Amino acid sequence: MPADVRGRQRGRPDVRGDVRGDTSAKDARRGRGRQDGANAASRGSRLCSMFWPMLAVALGFLGIAVLGVLGVRVFLEARRLGRQVAATAERVNRAAEDLERAAARLASTGEALR
């Protein structure tokens, strides 16, 4: 047998630091060599490490969309309120003109009675 194979069989690390084939020296010391299903934990931690940043980005976009919808609603309500204020101001002006005309007629009637 070649020297690197014999070294791995006896549990001694070869040049790369591997004790058994594709496992790291740290896993070998803990007694956790990579079997068929052992990669799931590694994939899960990578998935978990990418899940939170992607969730944060998605929630950020969702928040911006909600703020946009609320902004449009506020704009439409402000425009409606502006129209109501303009209509009310026009009615107040008409009422003031009517009052002025009525006051002028009353004044002329009062002058005629003297």
UniProtKB/TrEMBL annotation:
It comes from the Bacteria. The keyword Transmembrane applies. Keywords: Membrane, Transmembrane, Transmembrane helix. Residues 1-35 have a biased composition (Basic and acidic residues). The chain crosses the membrane at residues 51-76. Residues 1-44 are annotated as: Disordered. This is Uncharacterized protein. It comes from Streptomyces pacificus. The lineage of its organism: Bacteria, Bacillati, Actinomycetota, Actinomycetes, Kitasatosporales.
